[in-house]
Amino acid sequence: MGKESPFSKNMTSSPAETYIRRIIRDWADTVVIPMRRHYDEDWHEHRLIEPAFKALMVDLGFQKAMIPAEFGGWNFGNTDYLATASAWMFEEVARADSGIALAFGVCYWPMIMVAVKPHINRRLCAEFAPMFVDTDKPVYGVVAMTEPQGGSDIENLDLLHGQTIKTTARLDGDEWVVNGHKLWPTNTGGLADLFGVVCTTKPGSDDDEDVAYIYVPADTPGVTQGNAYEKAGMAADKNGDVWFEDVRVPSWYRAHGPGLDALYLKEVLTLGMMSATFSIGPVMNVYEILRDFCSQKTLNGKPLKEHDAIAAELSEIVAGIEVSRAATYRLAMMLDRQDKYGPRWSPEILAKARSTKMFVADKCLEGCEKAMEIMGAYGADRDWDVEKHWRDIKMGQLYEGGKQLAQMDTARYYFDCETL
Amino acid sequence: MKEGQSDTINSNSYFPYPKEWLDAESEDIAESVRKWADNEVIAKRLQFREDLEHQMRTLAILAVDIGLHRLIWPEEIGGVGFPLPDASSTLVRAYEEIGRADPGIGYISAANIALAATLLEDQGIGGEMKKKMAAAFCDSEDVELFSLILPGLGDINAKSHRIVSGREVQAELQNEGNGWILRAERARPFNSGYNASMYGVLASLPEGLGFAVIEADKKGVERGELLKTTGLSASLNSDVSLRDVRLSDDAVAFVDESFYKRLSAWMRLLTGSIAVGSAIDVYRLVKDWADNRVIKGKGLLRDNPMDAAVLAQVAMDIVNSRLLIHNLARAMAKPGVFGIGGGDDIFILSGVISVRVLDDCMHAINRAMEMMGSAGYSKEWHVEKHWRDLKTMQVYLGGRTPVEMDVARYYYGSDVL
To answer: What is chain B's pLDDT, residue by residue, as a tens digit (417 residues)?
Structure first.
């Protein structure tokens, strides 16, 4: 690559940001980027992906980032910069591979319920933190949410209040008995170590009190993970069916209890919108690739970058990156300063997070599409990595309930809609 | 199925096109290709996915058994004898059906037919070259794949060649003694560079342009490594270098820019048709998906106004695209009204329509994927393959900016673009 990237490497004026970015960039440039062209064929075996993931999560220690310090972690969850720190980390990882960034982010996801202030559940942290901090293997966390019927309805908590959840949790003595079938969770397809399972204690109820979030270690009897699905991209993110058949876990494996589980689950969803960075990182890398390509390739006798019409397109790509970053880091600050902007589980913050992620994913996808068109036939080559980013960003646009749910969550708040 | 609707959602009446521009024989051909698409490809998708052997086998059925690759060649040299340019509407219908099945198969077939149409229409190309090509298309029991090396992007470190309509020619021809020498350094073919049996190369001459036809096994032809690409898996491509390839006179034709413009117009017509067919298949898939999905724990997804609006956009894009591509076919079939094939009028019209049709079909597929969420990018549903294929086709056609420059030259007289 040519000169240093002109995009700010410190969006938050934090020395930690510069330091962490540098660590991840070294890993990305030496471990992932030289090999990522082979990841598509590695979607099932993960012979290449697993060592890269281990290097990040275990060798560099990022697996510990969110866990509170008293349980051996880096304590990000117990600070006022959880979202901004996630943004730096995810953006840098996604610059190399958005699938790894997603797998990385989701490893934290189930623990948000119990390891993030102001609702740290110390008993559950003590139970599960050692999985993440006292190990020499990467640990795959999973939020098991989507079910075969209804797609993203479960994420539509503000309207449906868990009414469509089919996975059940029944209290039997001092144990929960979980039964159900989940589809598509990230970090499954045989990888999962710890599930946060979204279930109902009263099927058909539209009362938030009946929404339960229950931890299930993947080796619990009755848990079955299906094979990974084959997808358009994101090979590092394995997804499959998961079945829970009379799975028994201790009653205190429920995160917080009636009402609070639903409330904090909304926070899990809102923080999930930091996945906007999974689109920004790739398109930042597309910029780096384009800068070289447009200096080397010519149209009508001129380097592409010196062709005025192409330069106009290039400027649009860069403008999309800058605006997307500004919006996403602004969102991250709002998520972190709950004292100023309100709790992360409020409909207002959810709407702002959904709209930001929706805008950013669209903008980054548009930038990637422009890049491919500028590159002509080379834009479709695996060798240039741009098409890989294009496939990955498209997938990022569609997951977490997709574009339409984001539109509804946004409109519901801003226009006081009552039936969306 | 509601009253008044067609009983097969792939049928032609579901998305209208001007039927009066096709005769019964053309519809018969389209019907044969439709059956091929349904039986040989669509019904076997889960079994074969993107298996190259299967793709080549099905291409052979299409090209040889059904006879699509013989269609436009005159009967006296072994063809079926569909006259050009009238066959344009017939070809659109056929390539729509191929696009429904597998845009990659359509793409390599389209490159071959576009080349054949251009050679047949170009009055400057001699009978010997036409006979040689006719033999490849009409006499062989296998598919002879032609790979096209056409103008495109240049490289700052490579020798610059002549510029045609703003694009850089990738090869050069030099007269030597009683023959020709052909040279190119890591040229990027339009299709099938890795496994073609023949190459068709547009090359710079000291004065003007030449078109060369060469066998892939000729001395000096060097194929690069197989390129992995986003889509169009049936088109195995690689860079190709031509190192002092010696050619006889009958392998080279003197041509001018009209050759490139004519070839581009045919290629745009056929790839646009493939895109429409591909979007029609995505419509079928998303409809199937939406027919069974429930939203908010109750009503069908298709009955939700927001989702219905997205689904409507998919259909609207297809309706518009189909009408546009059939209109391009009609314009190409009427040179007395719309301009001759190698002229600027049709070259520009084909560029404008091609960009729009590809954009709209991509938009339709993108919207369908948004509707389907994770099923949209799951290989099992096949929508993502259409999406990858069309994007690949779009960029292989050169993208938007070169066409915008063509349009500016034509409509505004910009002469330095």
So the answer is: 444 444 445 555 689 999 999 999 999 999 999 999 999 999 999 898 899 999 999 999 999 999 999 999 999 888 999 999 999 999 999 999 999 999 999 999 999 999 999 999 988 888 888 888 899 999 888 899 999 999 999 999 888 889 999 999 999 999 998 899 999 999 999 999 999 999 999 999 999 999 999 999 999 999 999 999 999 999 999 999 999 999 999 999 999 999 999 999 999 999 999 999 999 999 999 999 988 888 777 778 888 888 899 999 999 999 999 999 999 999 999 999 998 889 999 999 999 999 999 999 999 999 999 999 899 999 999 999 999 999 999 999 998 999 999 999 999 998 777
- B2 in contact with A, Cβ within 8 Å: no
Q: Tell me, what amino acid is at B341?
A: G
Asked if the C-beta of B52 comes within 8 angstroms of chain A's C-beta atoms, the answer is no
Is the CB of residue B295 less than 8 Å away from at least one CB of chain A? yes
What's the pTM? 0.95
Side chain identity at A418, as an amino acid letter? E
Disruptive mutation site among B51, B150, B191, B228 for chain A (greatest number of A CBs within 10 Å): B228
Determine phi and psi for B68, rounding to 5 degrees: -60, -35
Q: Topology of domain A265-414, per CATH? A: Butyryl-CoA Dehydrogenase, subunit A; domain 3 (1.20.140)
CB A59 within 8 A of CB A52: no
How distant is the Cα of B373 from the closest Cα of chain A, in angstroms? 5
Contact criterion met (CB < 8 Å) for A297 and B371? no
Which residues have CB under 8 Å from A405's CB, separation 6+?
A152, A155, A156, A354
CB–CB of A380 and B163 under 8 A?
no
Using the structure block, give the residue that is written with the tokens 């966390």: A141
Instruction: List, in order, residues 6 or more apart from B84 with CB less than 8 Å away.
Output: B72, B117, B120, B121
Q: Which of B157, B366, B379 sits opposite A230 (nearest CB)?
A: B379
Assigned CATH class of B148-255 = mainly beta
Contact B395 A373 (CB under 8 A): yes
Contact B391 A184 (CB under 8 A): no
> Which CA distances in Å does B19 have to A20, A305, B37, B289?
64, 46, 21, 30
Kindly determine whether residue B296 and residue A408, on different chains, have CB atoms separated by under 8 Å: no
CA atoms within 13 A on the CB side of A350: 26
Q: Select the residue of A149, A373, A395 nearest B394 (Cβ to Cβ).
A: A373
This model of the complex carries an ipTM of 0.94
Q: Does A136 touch chain B (CB under 8 A)?
A: no
Instruction: Determine the Cα angle at A321 with ends A315 and A324, to 5°.
Output: 135
pLDDT tens-digit series, residues A140-196: 999 999 998 766 778 888 888 999 999 999 999 999 999 999 999 999 999 999 999
B positions 309-368 inside 8 Å of A (CB)? 310, 366
Could you give the residue range(s) of every CATH 1.20.140.10 domain in chain B? 257-412
What CATH code would you report for B19-144? 1.10.540.10
CB contact under 8 A, B306 and A404: yes
Domain ranges in chain B with CATH number 1.10.540.10:
19-144
Q: Would an 8 Å CB–CB cutoff place B377 in contact with chain A? A: yes
Indicate the residue type of A152: S
Topology of the domain covering B257-412: Butyryl-CoA Dehydrogenase, subunit A; domain 3 (1.20.140)
Query: A275 and chain B: CB distance < 8 Å anywhere?
Result: no
Res A363 pLDDT > 60? yes
Q: How far is B26 from chain A (nearest CA, A)?
A: 33
Any chain A CB within 8 A of the CB of B380? yes
Spell out the alpha helix ranges (H) of A241-307: 260-272, 276-296
